[in-house]
Design goal:
Layout lengths: L7 H6 L1 E3 L2 E4 L3 E3 L6 E3 L22
Antiparallel strand pairs: 1-2, 2-3, 3-4
Amino acid sequence: MSKINITDKAKKTAKVIDKKIQYGESKNMCFACGEKIDSNTKICPYCKTKQDEKESILKQ
């Protein structure tokens, strides 16, 4: 799997809440592919990965 590069601007914009990256109140970032998805999505529509609430591409 290729490494996802996250810009400094994205790190400042993103909030990590419950170990999920959130963009606003209704979007999260898929930990596997990095796409922005709805926060209530259980399976990413882009990469078909199950969203585990304990996973994140930004580790604390």
